[in-house]
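Retro notes, item 3 of 5
We never archived the inputs for the S-adenosylmethionine complex last cycle. Fixing that now. Sequence and ligand:
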Amino acid sequence: MLVDNHNRTINYLRLAVTDRCNLRCNYCMPSEGINFAKNDKLFTIEELSKLSAILVSRGINKIRITGGEPFVRKDVMVLLAQLANMEGLEDISITTNATLIGPYIDELKELGIKNINVSLDAIDKATFERITRRNQYDVVHNNLIRLITEGFNVRINFIALDGQNTQDILPILELTRHYDVAVRYLEEMPFNGGSKKFQSITWDYKRILEHIREAYPDYYKLISPETSTSINYKIPGFKGSFGVIPSFSRTFCGSCNRLRISATGDVITCLYAKASANLREILRGANSEERIKNEILKAVGSRAKTGFEAQEKHKDVFSNSMTSIGG
Ligand code: SAM
Ligand code: SF4
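Structure as it came back at the time:
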């Protein structure tokens, strides 16, 4: 079991399989001039699988595959198939922009991978295209509805972006009236590759909730798992649910159970911290299993208590882009 220096059990790994993406969401990365990692700096599928197995042997039982966009890697299904057969790994989930997932839906179902988070920051097509700087709305919408109707456990991630998409907060909630889907509203974080700096946000989780409360005064709170980052609610009569994730307000750090590994092998123990180690060359070298375990123990043993503490120590962390961290 992995236990950090604040006595929190770490059982959840967020594994980025690439830093590349076919969209250019303006809150995540600049439109151009991005230094994507060279291929040899990215793990191969065999390396990702080996790394996962080492971590599962230390107590990780949930892995989320993220990126960049996981499905820009044509070999991602090979990794998912290997993870699906990994003993001790109880939960595999994916975070995707849903542009490229279509051809893989049947195979995902066969592998028993059901938990899919779809990032969708607008229900209005023009707003979507402005934010993502690409014209993939119809594909995303079709894939989203297909995933929901084919029985996947789908959660939609919607980042509340001041001046860009808050007019869609209520319209996107309509999806939960008709479908058993969760819409989760996230606070914007300043990890966008340096294209926009800010110290505070207008649309924090409280404001999002007030806005929803004005339209649906009788929504009520659901019981959520202790380690959940989302606070979840339901509107009476609606099939699905909604939630808020205070990703900038950071109210959930006390029960954080996560470890992140970036596409290039950085170990990140908090979103608001810089990498504490890099595993790529270690994994490629001699005695790798033992050395990886040691690095992980070291990283987990020196975690910041909260995102605020991490931010204090790593003042330049905001130059990071979410596409390399994985969200
Ligand atoms: N490409 C995939 C996707 O968009 O779902 C996976 C990677 S993306 C970096 C993971 C998550 O991070 C997405 O839900 C995205 O909306 C979120 N994200 C990216 N930049 C963010 C930011 N600056 N603030 C808050 N969330 C962000
Ligand atoms: Fe790509 Fe996801 Fe970042 Fe959008 S949020 S640019 S889809 S990695």
